[in-house]
Amino acid sequence: MAADLIYAFRVMRLPLLDAGGAPIGRIQDIVAIPGRAVRGSKPAIPPRVVGFVANSQRRKIFVSANRIAEINSDGARLQSWDVDLNPFKHRSGEVLIGEDLIDRRVDDETVSDIALRPHSDARETWWVIDKVRLARKSSLRRRPSYRLVDYDEVPALFDSATEMQAEAARLRELHPAEVAAVVRALPVDQRRQLAEAMDDERLADVLEELPETEQINIVEQLDLDRLVGVFDEMEFDDLADLIGEMAPADQERMLDVMDDDDAEVVRNLLSYEEGTAGGLMTPEVIILGPDSTVAEALAQIRNPHWVVSIAAQVFVSQAPYKAPTGKLLGVVHFQRLLREPSSMELGRLLADDPTLSPNSTDREVAEMLASYDLLAVAVCDDAQRLLGAVTVDDVIDRMLGSGWRTRHAPRQSRSDE
Question: 348 pairs with which residues across the strands?
């Protein structure tokens, strides 16, 4: 029914509301991905809205469509209170309805609006592109005439992306582990095409979820500039695992394209024996001095780039505050930070958690994490300088063995239903 349609031009002027209905920004544009044909008797999947571009706190941000509880005349209301303030990135294969489609010429007509149709089930509400409103000007009329057509009557609006660019855009909202499962199911040539269609950050996240042998097959096909960008986005421990699987000559070739400081970090990680704390640890953890405050620690933890196991605690050491640090003084856990005033110094809140040497076995690491209910355990040298930390997710990964990722099935995405 026409009453079910929501017009993009109207949505792009609505306020963005928090879960309580208070305005926190304004919708600027709508992000959609191309539809696709489906095998068998099912109809084609129409282009789908994956999110919204909004202005909030003087930033242009991306708001995922599955985080929107409802859209009405008051605005687009979020389901929860948290907001991801990372800058919006226009990814390959995505279409911005306002920027790319509105006012676009289609033969002798112009796109004046796009009609969205909401769908919902017990899990979520989503929107698809249903109609396109076209305007035609005539020298005989003062005002243009309008007509509403189905989206598939103007396919040129939505088919500018290559098949793999469109697929990369459709996978935007999946967890990297689920994308990795999709990648493994593709033929080798399509895997590489999909990798080329992803941006550096997304490809790095997906590579970290693939077995090292499959990572190598992909990175070996990347040009020098792309390698540098992807390596910059990967976690050091995952990067060391990847490079460690290569032949010595290929290892040197990969290390040569990296920044000198980053290459030195990876070389140090590669120097530790496999199956030890040194071989499992990451040097990228949150490190502050004893005079730093709770407010400073919470500001670090809020950084969305930290994984949960790293953001669960702050390591406090003497200077320097980058591994290898000065002497490790202790740890302050996230829950303790929430209970203390923002001006409190970390040196007054230290927990005396146990530490491991880089030569500790992976069994000893697992027992330490389990015994003390930790998400991460510090790895220190003989002088008690912090070298890094081993996180529980890396320990589980090691315990499951090298083949577990190949048995992980992808969760069904909304675009496949």
Answer: none
- For 334-352, write each residue's pLDDT tens digit: 999 999 999 999 999 999 8
Residue 121 neighbours by CB distance under 10 Å:
9
Contact 259, 233 (CB under 8 A): no
Picking from 86, 106, 216, 92, the residue whose alpha carbon sits closest to that of residue 163 is: 92
pLDDT score, position 113:
94
Look up the CATH number of domain 287-400.
Answer: 3.10.580.10
Pick the most confident of 80-84, 95-99, 399-403.
Answer: 95-99
Average pLDDT over residues 106-134: 85
- CATH class of the region 174-271: mainly alpha
Burial class (CB in 10 A: 0-12, 13-18, 19+), 324: middle
Determine the Cα–Cα distance for residues 50 and 64; give it in Å rounded to an integer: 6
d(CA 10, CA 278): 56
- Helical ranges in 277-391 per DSSP H: 277-280, 294-301, 308-311, 334-339, 362-372
Give ranges for CATH 1.25.60.10 in the chain.
174-271
Residue 414 has pLDDT above 70, yes or no: no
Secondary structure of 246-273 as H, E, C letters: CCHHHHHHHHHCCCHHHHHHHHHHHCCC
Residue 26, classed as helix, strand or coil, is strand
CB 409 within 8 A of CB 181: yes
Kindly report whether the peptide bond that precedes residue 324 is cis, defined as omega within 30 degrees of 0.
Answer: yes
Cis? peptide before 320, omega within 30° of 0: yes
Q: Give me the sign of the Cα torsion angle 185, 191, 196, 197.
A: negative
Q: Which of 317, 318, 315 is nearest to 337 (CA)?
A: 315
Give the pLDDT band (50/70/90) at residue 416.
Answer: very low
The pLDDT value given to residue 41: 46
The 10s digit of each residue's pLDDT in 214-254 is 888 888 888 888 888 888 888 888 888 888 888 888 888 88
Cα–Cα distance, 121 to 300 (Å, whole number): 38
Q: How far apart, in whole angstroms, are the C-alpha atoms of residue 150 and residue 348?
A: 65
Helix, strand or coil, per DSSP, at residue 403: coil
Give ranges for CATH 3.10.580.10 in the chain. Answer: 287-400
CA torsion through residues 247, 250, 256, 262, sign: negative
